[in-house]
Amino acid sequence: VKRSPHSKMQVQRFQCRGAQPQKANRTRCVSVKAAKALIVNTKGGGHAFIGLHLAKALLAKGHTVTILQDGDQAKLSAKAPFSQYAGLEGHGVNVHFGSPTDPAAFPKDTFDIVYDNNGKDLDSCKPLIDAYTGKVKHYVFVGSAGAYKANSIEPCIFEGDVRKATAGHVVVENYLQEKGLPFTVFQPMYLYGPHTAKDCEQWFMDRIVRDRPVCIPEPGIQLTSLTHVEDLASMLAAVPGNEGAKFQQYNSCSDRCISFTGIAKAVAKAMGKEAKIVLYSPEKVGTGKGGKAEGFPFRTEHFFASSNKAKRELGWQPKHTFLGDVNTQVEEYMKQGRDRKEVDFSIDDKILAALGHA
Fold first, then answer.
1. CA distance 179 to 145
2. Please, what is the Cα angle at 163 between 158 and 166, to 5 degrees?
3. Distance between CA atoms of 10 and 146, rounded to whole angstroms?
4. I want to staple 7 with a disulfide (CB 3.0 to 4.6 A). Which of 3, 13, 116, 147 is the partner?
5. How does 238-250 read in b/e, with b if 16+ C-beta sit within 10 Å?
6. Residue 172 to residue 181: CA distance in whole angstroms
């Protein structure tokens, strides 16, 4: 592991084990023809804005895009990221709202490639997989790096590391293999960027802008990955026309990692403030165990991975870093007026009281 010049914020760019001289990249030898892509997009959580940014990345490469958006159009259209779909439609994207588990809701057009950014288990994925088996050249499943088992000895995750056999994403992958459908699996980690529907770095901003203590599970130097959604989208968009990507898994994350205290310090610097960091044990104060802490937006363990395989085989390179983007993220937070909104700090107060800081 090599420290970057930002070591005070405990940001690291890692040279992962097994690195070898780069071979000629298969992607660069592929002549990519315009493909007809269907993006099936989830309506909630940290993956909800992937569909928007993936559509933009595919359009930029000359592909035709259709989105099947889970949920009720009347309820979603005014919310981020779905409120941005009108701009996509102006560039020829067809957007349909309906259930990805109901074949009657599927677009009637034919497609070369399907991106499943909706399902987390077989029940939610099976209807889509069954409908497009034998009908598409490529099926892309957006899973999660959360399916890997935590490893406290060698925490950097590589494709092929042990995963939880019962994890919903793994069960879906096994079904894809059974069906013989040419597929690729991408495994994102924590995402940030425009029009997100889930807070990560904003959790730190909520506290720092109000001069409140930032309660972080000890020891605070746990490393995690924060990846800009545009970098993830560019990785996904490298698939059409790449035969070598079939039947492969790719970790989908930044090539840098950052500690919890590093995030707090970076956000505080961007806000022109000092981070009042308080370290605590979730087990001792009764707010968590087993790698989880109530009210905290991240796993309390190391959670980062190597993206070298995607670089080698897909010709992918990230354009963003969290430290390079943190000022923009803070500006967006302030622009939305979130510094003036009411925030529930009851869990923080419970922690501080248990530590005698009340």
1. 23
2. 160
3. 23
4. 3
5. bbbbbeebeebbb
6. 12
| CA 239 – CA 62 distance, rounded (Å) | 13
Two tokens, residue 349: 């107060």
| DSSP structure class, residue 224 | E
* Helix (H) and strand (E) counts in the chain: 12, 17
**pLDDT 10s digits, 258-267:** 999 999 999 9
Q: What is the pLDDT of residue 33?
A: 80
Strands 248-252 and 2-3: unpaired
Task: Quickly list H helices, 61-164.
Answer: 73-76, 85-89, 122-132
Kindly write down the DSSP assignment for every residue of 16-47, as one continuous string. -TT--PPPPPSGGG--PPP-EEEEEE-SSSTT
In this prediction the pTM is: 0.90
Q: Is 95 exposed, middle or buried (0-12, 13-18, 19+ CB in 10 A)?
A: buried
Distance CA 280, CA 277 (A): 10
Cα dihedral sign for 223, 151, 297, 118? positive
Whether residue 288 contacts residue 296, with contact meaning beta carbons closer than 8 Å, is answered with yes
225/230 Cα distance (integer angstroms): 15
Q: Which backbone phi and psi does 355 adopt, to 5 degrees?
A: -90, -5
As a whole number of angstroms, the distance between CA 22 and CA 102 comes to: 44
**Mean of the per-residue pLDDT values for the chain?**
91
Instruction: Return the bridge partners of 140, or none.
Output: 115, 184
- Token pair, residue 68, equals 């099947």
Give the residue from 285, 321, 319 showing the smallest Cα distance to 300.
285
Place of tokens 């419970």: 350
Report the SS3 class of residue 158.
Answer: coil
- Residue 239 near residue 140 (C-beta atoms within 8 A): yes
